Amino acid sequence: MSTLTNFGVTLMAAPGSDRGDLHSTSVTRSTSAPRITLCAPAQPKSVGHLRKRASMIFSAWMLSTDETQAAELVISELLTNAVEHGRGKMTLAVARTASALEITVADHGHAARATSPGDPDEHGRGLAIVAAIAQDLSIDKTAEGWRTLARMALQCSMPDSAA
Question: Model-level pTM?
């Protein structure tokens, strides 16, 4: 069990689970914004584990239900892309500023297999969904793979007690 005491969050695996095969969790606290980074294998089962952990963090950061659900959708879409197009591991980082939530997903490695376009009703809409929800969206090629940052405006400032 990992405990994030600075944020009032305890990250716990579900009974009988394997902790989602998370490799690492780090917490960085700067003067401007708390940031939490989670790393997991680039596998479909990791998407749900990381999304649930991020949701617990959002609760501690006092995001509204609507903001949490929108952020969970963004996380699901970005992590699914990392699973689909990357290999090895993927990293999810969430940061809360006074008025925004930043979600960063990085995949490590290049696509292990060729991907086919498939049914347009089932593939290829993830980034469009993220772009519609996010205030800003940037996608950058890195030496390790791809890094996607989605910034979402928040309605309420984070109280000092939650920072």
Answer: 0.74
